Structures are given as structure tokens and as C-alpha cells.
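The instructor's notes for this session suggest beginning with a concrete chain rather than abstract definitions. Hand out the sequence below and ask the class to guess, before any prediction is shown, which regions might be ordered.
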Amino acid sequence: MKNRRQKKILELIIRYEISTQEELMEKLKEAGFDVTQATVSRDIREMKLTKVETNGHLRYVAYRESDEDLHEKYRKVLREGFLSMDNAQNILVIKTISGMAMAVAAALDSMDYPELVGCIAGDDCVMCAVRSLDDTVNLMAKLRRIIER
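After discussion, reveal the predicted structure:
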């Protein structure tokens, strides 16, 4: 039901200049979806809809970040939080600025490195489980290229 409703929301905001949640609720009801304002608000947030000005009026649009945009954000988080890294066999330890370890770990996990099994973060340290010692060396080289950029 949710997927169908969100698909219909995309169709509606493309077809009509919808600028309020109330307008969107009305169009959804006309299309046979019985929704509340809370549901519409949650859908807007989950779908990352935003308002832009067109012809002097605000309207909802779907904002989609490309994979390259997301990867650049992850690289930026890594560069901003990184202090140092070292390995103990296939365990990679990354020291970060205080408070940045979770963000760095989330960025690393999201970057889908095949060498990386997963990360555990504290406040200023990330422990990465890597598949092998060779993979650790390769991953460290990849991370250095990002950080030194």
C-alpha cells in the first residue's frame, strides 16, 4: 500500500503543481487513497520531496541525489573526520576527530568496499573488519587516495 501510494504521489507532483500537504491529500483522496495529514507528511519526508519555485509558485518536486553525489558526501565525511589509520593484520583501525567515528564508520559502510566486512565505531575510533591482510593493504591505499585529495 505504501509503495503504491508513494508512486502515486510522484505521479501527482509531476502532473500537478502541488504546493501544500492539503492539496496533496486531496489529490490522493481523488485517486482512491484514504490518507491522513500525518501519513502525507511522513511520505514527503521519506521520499525526500522538496519545494522549488516555478512560475512564481512553490511546488513539490522529487529530489534525487546521484550515486556520485552520495559518494562525494561520504568521501567528505571521511576527509573531515580522519586523523590516522593503522592495521593489525586484517583489522583496520581509524582514529578520528572526537565525535566523528560513527559518521566515518557509516560513510565507510555506505561506500560498499568489497574488502570491508563491517565497522564498529566509538567516539573517536573506528574498527573495521577486513577480509584479509592483502585486502587491508588495498583498502588503506584506497582510503589514502581519498584523504590526500
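Then share the key points. The mean pLDDT is 91. The CA atoms of residues 112 and 118 lie 10 Å apart.
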